[in-house]
Specification:
This protein is mainly beta. The strands form two sheets. Strands 4, 7, 8, 9, 10, 11, 12, 13, 14, 15, 16 and 17 form a twelve-stranded antiparallel beta sheet that branches. Strands 1-5-6-2-3 form a five-stranded antiparallel beta sheet, with no helix packed on it. Pfam families: Tocopherol_cycl (PF14249). Keywords: Signal.
Length: 328
């Protein structure tokens, strides 16, 4: 079941705001005089009603305008835990990548109501997800999978969230060194432990079928997703402005299996996955393909210890007024 969002009347996080700040939760375009976009994607899943609601807010090409978007927070299961940049600490370096990407909240609990065409749907502690993109341009092609509401038959853990995405993005956009690369990341939270999979392979159809696998420190993960409906259009930044450029469903059937060697650690399935493809699929099925981030950039970008040290240093420098990185 799918609903068109008319009014998001009340949404309240179920616990106090966490003292740990999520990286890149602010607005990155302050003072920008070049083409720029920033968009926030929020998804609310209502398993009992077998429906989802998505709210997308975007700022597109503000130019010299003084857009004001204030930072917001949410409740985290471990309020003292360090929050990481989804694309690694290099996401702080402005135009290096385009676009940038940050998961703001993989699993929140929301209470409130949604009103659509006069019909009110109330919810309490419903699964909530939030992410954002920003930069000079959207990818030329991408796929995306997300779910934080799995079937009760979840094996190997009590709580699981999944976000996986792959894209053809620009590196050093707008410079003489501008080039494109295929990149991807699978992010799992298993009972609160974050597992990033930077080694990703995929075969994705223009619509309806996603086959994705990843490897990380002796772990492997396999994801299979399908969509039986036609999906709904999603507006994205284009050279001509915001326009329908992607297709998305909230009713995707998805299975995920996490293994170490021959041992299955986690197995889960859902019929409430969000599945998306976008951009240029004129050549048909994308794949088999793999993330192309080159060394040493790849190792540097996904070194969590280095990310922790660099991010802490940048935070301290901003507090002391030594530098200002918009949105960090």
């Amino acid at each position: 079941m799918r609903r068109t969002l008319a009014t998001l009347a009340l949404l309240r996080m179920a616990a106090p705001l966490a003292p740990s700040r999520t990286p890149h939760s602010g607005y990155h375009g302050q003072g920008s005089s070049t083409p720029f976009f920033e968009g926030w994607y929020n998804r609310l899943t209502l398993p009992e009603a077998e429906t989802s609601v998505a709210l997308i807010f975007a700022v597109f090409d503000p130019g010299a305008a003084h857009a004001a978007v204030r930072r917001w927070g949410g409740a985290f299961a471990n309020a003292s835990a360090r929050q990481y940049s989804t694309a690694g600490w290099l996401a702080s370096l402005g135009p290096l990548f385009s676009p940038h990407y940050q998961v703001l909240m993989s699993l929140g609990r929301a209470t409130g109501f949604v009103e659509v065409d006069g019909e009110r749907l109330s919810f309490a502690r419903a699964p909530f997800y939030a992410e954002k993109n920003w930069g000079a341009a959207f990818p030329s092609r991408w796929w995306w999978l997300q779910c934080n509401a799995f079937e009760a038959s979840l094996e190997g853990c009590s709580e699981l969230t999944l976000t996986a995405t792959g894209a053809t993005r620009q590196l050093l956009a707008g410079t003489r060194l501008d080039r494109s690369e295929d990149v991807a990341l699978i992010g799992l939270h298993v009972d609160g432990e974050f597992l990033p999979f930077p080694d990703v392979r995929w075969t994705v159809a223009p619509w309806g079928d996603w086959r994705v696998s990843g490897a990380y420190e002796g772990l492997t993960v396999d994801i299979a997703a399908t969509a039986s409906d036609a999906g709904v259009p999603v507006r994205v930044p284009t050279d001509a402005g915001m326009a329908d450029g992607a297709t998305e469903t909230y009713d995707g059937r998805l299975s995920v299996e996490l293994r170490r060697g021959g041992d299955v650690l986690v197995a889960a399935s859902t019929h409430l996955a969000c599945c998306e493809t976008g951009g240029d699929y004129a050549s048909g099925v994308w794949g088999p393909a793999a993330s192309e981030m080159a060394e040493p950039l790849r190792t540097v970008a996904f070194n969590l210890d280095l990310e922790r040290a660099v991010s802490a240093g940048l935070d301290a420098a901003q507090r002391r007024g030594w530098l200002e990185i918009p949105g960090l």
